[in-house]
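User: Outer-membrane lipoprotein carrier protein, Vogesella aquatica:
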Amino acid sequence: MKIIASTLLCLALAAPAHAAAIAQLKQFVSSTKTLSASFSQTVSSKGKQETASGVMELQRPGKLRWAYSKPFEQLIVGDGNTLWIYDKELAQITKRKQAGALGSSPAALLAGSNAIERDYLLREMGKQGDVEWLAASPKKADNTFESIKMGFSNNQLVEMELGDSFGNQTRIRFSDIKKNPALPAANFSFTPPKGVDLVSE
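Assistant: Predicted structure for Outer-membrane lipoprotein carrier protein:
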């Protein structure tokens, strides 16, 4: 099973010092226009684990880039209207409507509008070590993600834990986080390479 990203992404933030996790999340959404970070991802399913790593970028509202570099190259680009998933090894591109593909996923939560509490029930989960945790439960029962947890340390979103309806558990750790960097517009557009199979969903 290759790791695509039903877990698209997510990341960092600056918030008031020592603020609880929910306050930090709200501060992030209201103050972050762009974001970049490196990530490492582990997906656990039926006793097996797969790891991947790469770089993600975010431009609110609605634009994202999630580029896997290991163990294989895969690129996910959301331009605000269309979500492109390019698997270089398989020479295949999947094209989806972004709104339907993201729904109220973690990517929609972080890349979308400020309506966090419209789509999610937020609950503080307390502190574990140096990390403050919150749980975000999607209000829509048909959401792919059954559980979403976010961990903050030193006013940055440093970890996410996602549980989906297929029984997969995904853990994402972020590093090299940059808030509001200047990001080229070209990073959030995608032109299918010639000779690559295109599948529309």
